[in-house]
Write a structure and sequence with these properties.
heterodimer; A: 580 residues; alpha+beta; seven-stranded mixed beta sheet; 16 helices; 46% helix; B: 127 residues
């Protein structure tokens, strides 16, 4: 090698890093002289090198360049170490690892070999990238390392799983179709990612088109590491042009797997060409695409949400509009009906003095009905405008309840009804002491009467009874009571027809009534308004087990000082209760 | 209105006070009136070729006035009808547009109405 180096003033060498190191270690002076001779001659091609330059070689190549040699970079250079000048050709199959001298060297001056290898070198030289440029790229981090096209799906699967398994920080995934996600889950890519999340705390983000097929999978993945939020999945719109799975690991490696046939159930059948890359520019471009889509999907989700909210609001407006119309209709019907009776009888009264009493009674009945409705409508208006003024005082709730019972019983027809139907009203009080509350007596009485009226109305037709329970309780037994105040709970239980299933969900809203049952449908809305204005709650349910009848319950807050009144007469009610 | 022939009216209104007031008022004006507070009772007492006109409230429990009329018309094809309601007119907009023409119904009276005006409506319908 030494004699060859001394005999020529130009040489073309194609070798690995081992070959260059060998020259640097043993023959660098001879090569430098070769460069000097070549420069002096001012002709010839000089001393030229073709090699694959990576990060580790940068310093060595720089030394070669500084000494006036020319170096070009060729990626993926096959193992081919040879040197050729205009007279000699030499080659070795030794690897010259670490710059070790080769053990065998093939040398020939056969013109045919020399000429052939010269032309091989010229071809390679033409494709080579100037070493200065390559070094600049390496130093700038643009490392055009490795791009591999993988035609075999088996090889793609192997590479795929290796890459996912190698993740240290992050996995980004874009699936072209829901089926792609299913298939790639089946070959173990997703379980592998889950394992990486668990073991290495890496973060996984997935973009996929939505489908009911993967809904459960997505939900499971999202909940997999809840609440750490290490796996996040968002939906994107499926585009017919999107035909590849994109995988990016640690922002260093990308694998793009083209989708050949989405109808196939296995990965092998569905996948086409795959491209592996660790080129920084390429991988970061995929990252940028991912991040854009990620952001877009967020906007998309917000848009979908906003759209749903808008739809819901529109529905609400429609419902509200329908309810308003219903209100006007029911109100007008309820106002006009008694008005008609009053108007007709006032006309007829003069012509039929003999029926005066009957007609005046009818007029009075309808006038009262009109007055009640007017008051109900006024109450509704006050509740809705939050201007229900409460005249609070301390009073015995048991007294109000027994008065309401008395009122209901003295109403015309009721006594007959309970006698014939064997109905009864019981007042059961589990408190040995009276229950004093600080509230608007008139309004609470209105609520009790209304609930009692309803119970009687719906129990009349059936044999049965109505039971009123009054008890004091701590907050734990009362629905949704957020403070620690004691409560008094009043339940009115009947064995009547129960609450109609259609009405039940909107029981306490305005005009929740069935035309068959009569009534304006304002009573329970007003009850709710009154109880809530007192800081209490009201609720209702049908008796369990389809036994018929319903229970209406309301609670009122009971503060410490309100439980101990001084000058109220003891209640007539006993702990055994009163049965009528 | 034929002075010699007294028109026969079947009146149905679930509001008893109103049914009675209309019955008295119409009888004062020479009509023969059968009044019921339920369409079911009216149907079970319905007599073929007996009534000249039906005066039916619409909103009633168990069976509304329109359903009652459909059944009565099956029995007596010639009988005329006036509907009466305390509801808002717009509430029956679809019924007035699509159902009434099919049933040959022309008149919907809105409560409250004075006896004289009611009589006028009925006479117009009878002519």
């Amino acid at each position: 090698m030494k004699s060859i180096a001394e005999s020529t003033d130009e040489q073309s060498t194609c070798c690995s890093i081992g070959g260059m190191l060998l020259i640097y270690n043993y023959f660098f002076n001879e090569y430098k002289e070769m460069v000097d001779r070549s420069k002096r001659r001012k002709e010839g091609k000089g001393v030229r090198w073709i090699t694959s330059i990576d990060k580790d070689m940068v310093d060595l190549v720089k030394i070669f360049l500084d000494s006036g040699m020319q170096v070009r970079h060729l990626k993926n250079l096959i193992h081919l170490d040879f040197a050729v000048d205009n007279k000699n050709f030499n080659a070795t199959i030794d690897k010259m690892e670490g710059g070790k001298l080769m053990e065998s060297l093939l040398i020939s001056n056969e013109p045919a070999y020399v000429s052939h290898y010269n032309s091989v070198f010229e071809e390679l030289w033409k494709d080579g990238v100037d070493a200065t440029e390559r070094i600049r790229d390496i130093e700038a981090g643009v490392d055009l390392e490795d791009i591999e096209v993988i035609p075999s799906s088996a090889r793609a699967q192997e590479k795929y799983l290796n890459i996912v398994g190698s993740a240290q920080e992050e996995i980004l995934w874009i699936f072209p179709t829901p089926n792609a996600l299913i298939r790639q889950g089946n070959i173990g890519a997703i379980p592998l990612a889950k394992q990486a999340v668990k073991e290495k705390n890496i973060r996984v983000r997935i973009l996929t088109p939505a489908s009911s097929l993967i809904e459960q999978k997505v939900q499971d993945l999202k909940e997999y590491c809840y609440p750490a939020d290490l796996i996040d999945i968002r939906y994107i719109v499926q585009m017919s042009e999107t035909k590849a799975t994109i995988l990016v690991v640690d922002r260093k490696i990308s694998l793009v797997m083209e989708l050949q046939d989405d109808t196939k159930s296995t990965f092998h059948e569905a996948i086409g060409l795959s491209t592996y890359s660790n080129s920084k520019a390429g991988v970061l471009s995929y990252v940028a695409i991912f991040e854009n889509l990620w952001k877009q999907s967020e906007l998309y989700e917000q848009l979908v949400k906003a759209h749903e909210q808008l739809k819901e609001a529109h529905e609400q407006v429609k419902i509200h509009d329908k309810m308003q119309k219903e209100f006007i209709n029911v109100a007008s019907h309820e106002l006009r009906t008694p008005t008609q009776a009053i108007l007709s009888y006032s006309e007829l009264l003069q012509k039929h003095p003999e029926r005066k009493d009957e007609m005046i009674q009818a007029m009075s009945r309808n006038a009262i009905r009109l007055q009640r409705l007017t008051e109900d409508i006024l109450d509704v208006t006050k509740i809705e405008s939050r201007s229900l003024n409460l005249k609070k005082e301390q009073f015995n709730l048991n007294e109000v309840i027994s008065n309401a019972i008395e009122d209901v019983m003295t109403k015309k027809g009721f006594l007959t009804s309970i006698k014939t139907k064997n109905s009864a009203i019981k007042l059961l009080n589990n408190q040995s002491q009276d229950v004093y509350v600080y509230a608007d007596k008139g309004r609470i009485s209105q609520v009790v009467s209304n609930l009692l009226d309803n119970a009687v109305k719906f129990t009349k037709a059936a044999e049965g009874n109505i039971t009123i329970m009054v008890k004091k309780e701590g907050q734990e037994e009362v629905q949704n009571n957020s403070n620690n105040q004691q409560q008094v709970i009043v339940s009115i239980k009947d064995t009547g027809t129960g609450i109609d299933s259609e009405i039940l969900p909107m029981l306490f809203t305005k005009f929740a009534t069935k035309s068959q049952t009569g009534g304006t449908g304002l009573g329970l809305f007003i009850c709710k308004g009154i109880i809530e204005a007192h800081g209490g709650r009201i609720w209702a349910h049908n008796n369990p087990g389809g036994r018929g009848g319903a229970v209406f319950t309301f609670s009122l807050p009971l503060s410490e000082q309100q439980q101990q009144p001084q000058q109220y007469p003891p209640s007539a009610l006993t702990s055994e209760g009163v049965t009528v | 209105m034929n002075d010699k022939y007294e028109s026969r009216i079947l009146l149905v209104d679930d509001e008893r006070d109103i049914a009675l007031a209309f019955k008295i008022g119409l009888e004062d004006n020479g009509f023969i009136v059968d009044a019921f507070d339920s369409p079911l009772k009216a149907l079970s007492n319905f007599k073929t070729d007996f009534y000249d006109l039906l005066l039916l409230d619409i909103k009633m429990p168990k069976m509304n006035g329109i359903e009652a009329y459909e059944q009565m018309k099956e029995i007596d094809k010639k009988v005329k009808v006036c509907f009466i309601t305390a509801s808002e007119m717009h509430y029956y907009e679809d019924i007035r547009k699509y159902i009434f023409p099919k049933l040959g119904v022309k008149r919907l009276i809105i409560k409250p109405i004075g006896i004289d005006d009611l009589v006028k409506h009925l006479r117009d319908e009878l002519q």
